[in-house]
Design a protein that fits this description.
The protein has 261 residues and is α+β, with helices and mostly antiparallel strands. The protein is 33% helix and 28% strand.
Length: 261
């Protein structure tokens, strides 16, 4: 009888003392969602491993991702710090670089080194408005560290997948359904059309490839020329993990594009 009562008490504890991970989203009006199409997302520095993991998951959903280290390098060139990243003038600078939105991810760790809670906020570089906001809380089961608790808690990959899915769900339907993103469609290099295509020599393309190699950029495919301005030729290059960068060449000398170009 005592054993039976003990088992009943344990069962009650597991049922009433357990909860799966929870996620909630910031309400966003349909009018705000219709304002812009988001394809390229830059991650703000300081998000840690969870930020990188969310970036991978969003890249798998079809978005072009600028990782936090690349964003940090861009901020240095634009003379910008982390406090200023969400200011309207700073967002406009990112827009000039071909970035549609800035995503800020912050997380707190738990006793088991897994994410305990997290938040993500995506801001438009065009309007400065919040396009999507998500908060996430890990699950629990009974006493911390118990077998039931370990079963209920989720790791880094699962947390990132849930956060990325929540963000994409806020901005992933068609424009007619009040959304701003069509991530399933392949992304065409910026401003490259039949009328605007730039004719360049293989030698210059090779110099762009060499320049990117020297800077450590993980190039995928070939750089694509997309703009001619006087003696300047502008190239767009894509890298692993959804990275995106632009290079400017003049008289055989190549460099990264800046906000002043």
């Amino acid at each position: 009888m005592k054993t039976y009562l003990l088992l009943v008490l344990i069962a009650i504890t597991l049922v009433t003392g357990c909860a799966s991970s929870k996620i909630s989203s910031l309400p966003v009006s349909a009018q705000r969602q219709q304002q812009q199409v988001v394809k390229v997302i830059a991650f703000a520095p300081g998000g840690g491993l969870l930020s990188d993991a969310v970036g991978v998951e969003l890249a798998n959903l079809g978005f072009t991702i600028i990782d936090s280290s690349t964003t940090s390098n861009m901020m240095v060139r634009m003379n910008m710090n982390e406090v200023q990243i969400s200011r309207p003038d700073s967002l406009l600078k990112f827009k000039e670089q071909g970035i549609d939105a800035i995503l800020v991810v912050r997380a707190a760790g738990g006793y088991d080194f897994q994410p305990q809670s997290a938040s993500a906020r995506m801001s438009s570089t065009q309007t400065g408005q919040v396009l999507a906001g998500v908060t996430w809380q890990n699950g629990f089961g009974g006493m911390a560290g118990s077998p039931a608790d370990r079963i209920m808690r989720k790791g880094l990959t699962d947390a990132a997948a849930e956060i990325a899915a929540a963000i994409a769900s806020r901005i992933s339907t068609s424009p007619q359904e009040s959304s701003v993103v069509q991530p399933a469609k392949p992304i065409v290099p910026l401003a490259v059309t039949t009328a605007d295509a730039v004719v360049t020599t293989d030698a210059e393309t090779a110099k762009v490839v060499q320049f990117l190699s020297d800077t450590g950029f993980p190039l995928v495919g070939q750089p694509v020329p997309f703009k001619q301005k006087g003696n300047l030729t502008f190239y767009e290059a894509r890298g692993t993990g959804g990275r995106l960068t632009q290079v400017v060449c003049e008289a055989g000398v190549c460099r990264l594009r800046t906000v002043y170009d």
